[in-house]
Design brief:
The protein is mostly helical and 263 residues long. The protein has one domain (2-23, 44-262): MetI-like (MetI-like fold), CATH 1.10.3720.10. Helix content is 73%, strand content 0%. It has 9 helices and no strands. It is elongated and about 75 Å long.
Length: 263
C-alpha cells in the first residue's frame, strides 16, 4: 500500500491542478455570514476569516504550488545541466569559473538567498519563480559536472573522439543520455524542495499576493485563528505535508528502480 500511496496523492495533486478551472470554485468572494465556520456538508473544509471557502482556496493553492515547482525545476535542471556538462567537458578556465560560482552560491543557505533576491525584486509570483531559479540551478550543475568527470574519459567517449565525432554530438548522444537517471532523481527531490520554498516565501509575504491563495499564505493567515479555527492551518498544512512526503517517497522509489536497472 505504501508503494502506491505517493502515486495516489500526486495524482490527486495533478488532478486538482488540471481541473481547478473547470470546477468554477470561488476563492475570492467575501461572505460575512460564514466567517470562521468549521467544516460541514456545505463547506467541506470550512471557511476562513473572510468567509471564503477553504476548499476552493486549497485547490487554487495546489495549482500555484504545482506551477511554481515544475517551472522552477524545469528551468533550473535544463540550465544547470547544460552549464555543468559543457563546462566540465571542455574543462580549463570555464570549469574553474563554474566551480567558483557553485562554491559562491553554496556559501549561502539557498532559502536565505532566495528570500534576499525575492525581497529585492519585490513580491510577485514571477519574481518568486526567478528567485528560486537563480538559486536552484546550482545543484543540477554540480551533479552534471560530477557525472561528466567520471564519464568523459570512458572508452566509448575516447572512441567517438578518435572517429572525429564533433564535441556537441558527443555531448548530446553519449553524455547526456547517461546523465538522465541521476538528474531525474535529483529533479524529483527538487520538486519537493520547491513546493516547500514556495510555501515558505509566500508565508513571508514574498511570493503569491492576495487575493490569489497559496498554501503558505493560507497557513500565515490561519495562524492568527489557531485556537478558534484550527482548520485554517490544518487543511493547507496537511496538504503540504502529504505532497512533499509523496514526492520524496516517489523519489526514493525511483532512485532504487534506476539503481537496479543500472547494475
Amino acid at each position: 500500500m505504501v508503494k502506491y500511496f505517493s502515486i495516489i496523492v500526486l495524482t490527486l495533486w495533478v488532478l486538482m491542478t488540471v481541473f481547478a478551472g473547470l470546477l468554477n470554485l470561488d476563492s475570492v468572494t467575501i461572505n460575512l455570514r460564514q466567517i470562521l465556520q468549521p467544516p460541514s456538508f456545505e463547506l467541506i473544509l470550512g471557511a476562513d476569516e473572510l468567509g471564503r471557502g477553504v476548499f476552493s482556496r486549497l485547490i487554487e493553492g495546489a495549482r500555484i504550488s504545482f506551477m511554481v515547482a515544475f517551472t522552477v525545476v524545469g528551468i533550473s535542471a535544463f540550465f544547470g545541466t547544460l552549464v555543468g556538462t559543457i563546462a566540465c567537458y571542455f574543462g580549463g578556465k570555464w570549469e574553474q569559473f563554474l566551480v567558483a560560482v557553485i562554491d559562491l552560491f553554496l556559501a549561502f543557505p539557498g532559502i536565505l538567498l532566495a528570500i534576499a533576491i525575492a525581497a529585492i525584486l519585490g513580491p510577485s509570483i514571477g519574481h518568486l519563480i526567478l528567485a528560486l531559479c537563480i538559486v536552484g540551478w546550482v545543484g543540477y550543475a554540480r551533479l552534471a559536472r560530477a557525472q561528466v568527470l567520471s564519464l568523459k574519459n570512458r572508452e566509448h567517449i575516447s572512441a567517438a573522439k578518435a572517429l572525429g565525432t564533433s564535441h556537441w554530438r558527443i555531448i548530446g548522444q553519449h553524455l547526456l543520455p547517461l546523465l538522465l537517471a541521476p538528474l531525474i532523481v535529483e529533479a524529483t527531490f527538487g520538486i519537493a524542495g520547491m513546493v516547500i520554498a514556495e510555501a515558505g516565501l509566500s508565508f513571508l509575504g514574498l511570493g503569491v499576493q492576495p487575493p490569489i491563495s497559496s498554501w503558505g499564505s493560507m497557513i500565515k493567515e490561519g495562524a492568527n485563528f489557531m485556537l478558534v479555527a484550527p482548520h485554517l492551518v490544518l487543511a493547507p498544512g496537511i496538504a503540504l505535508m502529504l505532497v512533499v512526503f509523496s514526492v520524496n517517497l516517489l523519489g526514493d522509489q525511483l532512485r532504487d528502480y534506476l539503481n537496479v536497472k543500472s547494475i
